[in-house]
Design a protein that fits this description.
Length: 277
């Protein structure tokens, strides 16, 4: 675990997503959870070691299984965006669903044949403020990368957790995204409002403004391809061809070519189906 600002920590050693926590005199504000049981146990021990008050609350930055699967084991209230409630409740208990095809780390591990989902106790529409002791933590809805996406902002410490809004050297998760909103989110992130902020990606840890701009470049490429599909009429062969063209962004990771290509194929198919004109 690394302290990146006073009382703000990240952990990037577990499978799945980068975790965060804000330590306060009232308790810990946790950001996402590991999905493997051994990682959950290790993370809970690490949280006990950093101190803070006795209360616990867990913020899930979106509905992705990599960050929501372990929520039921964290012994805390769970906060999500309002749209996450129906999405999580509608999931089947069997792990082998089509949604699994969109995953990053979860699909690489066995032992998840049946899953018990934990509906969130707290949800909100646009903004939620957490005032725990001297820390002011803001939760904001940003629906670009996921309809239920949240950013966690700690203004006093100039830290912002943006979940899957920015991914470095890996394809975006398109199935629950809106590209127009996503590009607006990235435009905001590069504005003066977040100058000198530490930006924490949900997959990569601390990232740079250049990483944000590169993400926007990739999304604009995807947007252009999808516009062509809508003009000509989408078919499976066309979408598979587009996925192959987009792999040019990830040529430096040969070990992940199959999973990245599958992610793009499933994401493009789902996106075009959801955004039919």
């Amino acid at each position: 675990m690394k302290e990146i600002a006073r009382d703000v920590f990240i952990e990037n050693s577990y499978a799945g997503v980068v975790l965060g926590v804000v330590r306060t005199a009232h308790g810990l504000i946790m950001i996402d959870a590991p999905f493997r049981l051994e990682d959950i146990k290790a993370w809970k021990t690490a949280l006990d070691d950093i101190g803070g008050g006795p209360e616990r609350v867990l913020v899930n930055l979106d509905t992705h299984l990599d960050r929501t699967l372990g929520a039921k084991h964290m012994d805390s209230m769970v906060i999500t965006h309002q749209k996450a409630v129906s999405m999580i409740k509608s999931r089947p208990n069997a792990a082998k669903t089509q949604e699994m095809e969109a995953l990053n780390m979860f699909e690489s591990y066995d032992g998840f044949s049946n899953i018990r989902w934990l509906p969130p106790e707290i949800n909100f529409q646009q903004n939620l403020m957490l005032e725990w002791g001297s820390h002011h933590v803001v939760l904001e809805h940003h629906a670009g990368s996921n309809a239920a996406g949240i950013w966690v902002i700690i203004p006093d410490q100039k830290v912002i957790f943006v979940g899957d809004s920015v991914l470095v050297a890996q394809p975006p998760f398109l199935a629950f995204a809106d590209l127009a909103d996503w590009l607006e989110d990235l435009k905001l992130l590069t504005s003066a409002k977040y100058k000198n902020y530490q930006i924490v990606s949900g997959r990569d840890g601390i990232i740079s403004m250049e990483d944000v701009r590169e993400m926007a470049k990739q999304l604009r490429s995807i947007q252009r391809y999808i516009s062509q599909v809508h003009e000509k009429g989408a078919d499976t062969e066309t979408l598979l061809t587009i996925a192959g063209k987009l792999m040019k962004f990830y040529e430096d990771q040969p070990q992940n070519q199959d999973i990245f290509l599958n992610r793009l194929r499933w994401g493009l198919t789902s996106y075009c189906e959801m955004h039919k004109e």
